Amino acid sequence: MEVELKLIDNYKFQAKSSKGEFILNCEEISPVEYFAIGTIGCTAYDLKYFAQKDGYEIRDYSVKAEIERSGGVPYKFKAIHIIYKFKSDFEDIKAKRYILASLESYCTTVNSIRDSVKVNYSIDYNDKLIVDKESIISGSSSSSEAIIEDGFGGACCS
Questions:
Q1: What pTM does this model have?
Q2: 30-146 has CATH 3.40.50.970 classification
Q3: In what order do the strands lie in the sheet with 59-69?
Q4: What is the distance between the terminal CA atoms of the chain, rounded to a whole angstrom?
Q5: pLDDT tens-digit series, residues 11-49
Q6: DSSP string covering 13-46
Q7: Beta-bridge partner residues of 67
Q8: Of 30, 66, 107, 127, which has the fewest CB atoms closer than 10 Å, so is most exposed?
Q9: Which helix (DSSP H) or strand (DSSP E) does residue 93 occupy?
Q10: Cα–Cα distance between 80 and 65 in angstroms, integer?
Q11: CA separation (Å) from 39 to 7, 30, 32, 139?
Q12: How much is the CA Rg of the chain, to the nearest whole Å?
């Protein structure tokens, strides 16, 4: 992967990747906010992709993050709570499976920060809170902590 920024004016940059380009306006949205949006954008994409792959439509979909940062420079992320709200026609357990597959395996951005940032999530599915502030396993856990019983029997997204 290669990305590039070119200064346009003051704190505005032309952002380019192999897939496209856009204006990164740091006077309106800080780079840290872009980073946070990219983090939840990755997992938001995964849920939509997994459901569509299985023939389901996602409706009334939003993903939000509440982020706790350290008190001093460089103000690192300490914790992120990702809140999914959506509707569809599959069972509650499948909603949780899709999201856990993203958070614990597929989402590059979440998996890039989970060694140093506490990640938890909530799921509001079909106007019902089915998961409330559950933690995912840290990428830096010991091998005994890495094995958890998730109730899925090892099958994910099937």
A1: 0.85
A2: no
A3: 59-69, 77-87, 118-125, 128-135
A4: 30
A5: 999 999 999 999 999 999 999 999 999 999 999 999 999
A6: EEEEETTEEEEEETTTS-HHHHHHHHHHHHHHHH
A7: 80
A8: 127
A9: helix 92-101
A10: 6
A11: 24, 14, 10, 16
A12: 17
Contact 83, 122 (CB under 8 A): yes
How far apart CA 2 and CA 4 sit, in angstroms, is 7
Separation of alpha carbons 1 and 79, rounded Å: 27
Count of CB atoms within 10 A of residue 117's CB? 19
User: What's phi and psi for 96, nearest 5 deg?
Assistant: -65, -40
What pLDDT, in 10s, does the model give residues 55-106? Answer: 999 999 999 999 999 999 999 999 999 999 999 999 999 999 999 999 999 9
Alpha-carbon span 94 to 152, nearest angstrom: 9
- Residue 45: count other Cβ atoms within 10 Å of its Cβ: 14
Distances (CA, A) of 114 to 32, 108, 137, 146, 148: 17, 10, 8, 13, 17
Which bin fits 14, alpha (ψ -120 to 50), beta or left (φ > 0)? beta
